[in-house]
Amino acid sequence: MKDPKATGPQSCEDCPIRHRAVCARCETDELEKLEDIKYYRTFEAGQTVIWAGDPMDFVGSVVSGIATLTQTMEDGRRQMVGLLLPSDFVGRPGRDGAAYDVVATTDLVMCCFRKKPFEKMMMETPHIAQRLLEMTLDELDAAREWMLILGRKTAREKIASLLSIIARRDATLQLAGMRGPLVFDLPLTREAMSDYLGLTLETVSRQMSALKRDGVIELEGKRHVTIPDLPRLLEEAGDDADGGMMA
Amino acid sequence: MKDPKATGPQSCEDCPIRHRAVCARCETDELEKLEDIKYYRTFEAGQTVIWAGDPMDFVGSVVSGIATLTQTMEDGRRQMVGLLLPSDFVGRPGRDGAAYDVVATTDLVMCCFRKKPFEKMMMETPHIAQRLLEMTLDELDAAREWMLILGRKTAREKIASLLSIIARRDATLQLAGMRGPLVFDLPLTREAMSDYLGLTLETVSRQMSALKRDGVIELEGKRHVTIPDLPRLLEEAGDDADGGMMA
DNA sequence: AATTGACTTTGACCCAGATCAAGCGCGGCA
DNA sequence: TGCCGCGCTTGATCTGGGTCAAAGTCAATT
């Protein structure tokens, strides 16, 4: 993985509540009263942060690394319903149990707040709710984009859409409007990709091979991807205008 | 359609901002200053409220009737990404264009607020953002439930899930925990159902027939549905625990 | 009562993607 | 050095749902 700090907040240490994930505007003098309700947790790649249904007495945000939200049916069918990147928020004020499985797909650092005091603070500090509203609306847009992908796109378009989403996000690391090829490491296994896209892992593999064969992407090893021609990829994704949106 | 007031707010006239869609807690003395920024719009079944991309200078909430949010690809493939019921909120503070097509599927009354003043009021009245946050989180949950349906369920399960969602919502009209059969009218055409579920209209029709043949549902005409055994329907939907969630 | 047109159902056939089943590549480890 | 084991690829075959086509229902209109 790339250094996640590059896209995430510069540091969660500087100011916990100023942390972009929670609020971009609050004042530093709120720092002290937070010290006792905030803590950090780290996870290794593959570890589960919390299982759906388990009691969850905290909310938090991703400092570095990547986590996934997935839903599972009784018979084992799984659907990923969210991808958490640095600065993304986890947990719902006012809800006691986790709604989804949260799994670290890379090494992960989270900045957590005990839920009750956080809720109290949210009541007293208006812009926290305003900031959370903005973030939640972004996630909702991402979820809806995803619904179009799941409901109406072909396997090839789905793969291209996923790569666009990741490329787009990583592109912020590079010069905006740059011309050259885009290069990144896939943060997901083929299986995680299939859970994301509502496909089987075999279909994901086949379509990756097909996109490679057709020159839309280049692969070095299994994870390292080069996009020589982003507009071409976006066209393959089925939405020429842009590459989908991300939470 | 049923009288939508039964599930929606009792009246939008009583107090525009106390309107459940916006805020359940504000004080009546905010009424006056709202009179000049709020207005009503009515639409007939089938009318388009706004097209994706069009400038949108208002936000609002559904007073009565049902509307859909849909996304369309250049080649005409469509995916419904939201179902708006009475008290649901439309529009995003801080965004200028509509992100989705909004279409009235029944006769529709909306309570609208000019966007700029609404945003200003939201900044000044903390619980409005808090209320909108709650609602948006509910919508996000619904969208994620929907993603599981789109990505992993079979056609039969999709239909059963949709019927469960509608039945569940309409069930609030009836005594909670009631035993008897559930009866309601589908607010959607077969085509709208297919747009919702990522299927073709033919498949929707076939699966409706199959569920009828198997005694899971009873049909009188094309729209009037009876659910003789709700647990059976939920089982067919693939999630025994409950019938999915709704925005 | 017949016509029209929107919506729905049903049938026949086909294909994208699932399923089942080998193998491959490569890092970790004895 | 070789042998796991895990993630990935590739092949062969099957099938759920799509596609194309026709006919049925029903309310509104003439």
Automatic annotation (TrEMBL), chains A, B:
Start and end residues of each HTH crp-type domain: 153-231
GO cellular component labels: cytosol
Keyword annotations from UniProtKB, A to Z: DNA-binding, Transcription, Transcription regulation
Membrane-traversing stretches: none
PROSITE patterns: CNMP_BINDING_3, HTH_CRP_2
Domain Cyclic nucleotide-binding span(s) in chain numbering: 22-139
PANTHER family cross-referenced by the UniProt entry: CRP FAMILY TRANSCRIPTIONAL REGULATORY PROTEIN, FUMARATE AND NITRATE REDUCTION REGULATORY PROTEIN
Name of the protein in its database record: CRP/FNR family transcriptional regulator, anaerobic regulatory protein
Taxonomic lineage: Bacteria, Pseudomonadati, Pseudomonadota, Alphaproteobacteria, Rhodobacterales
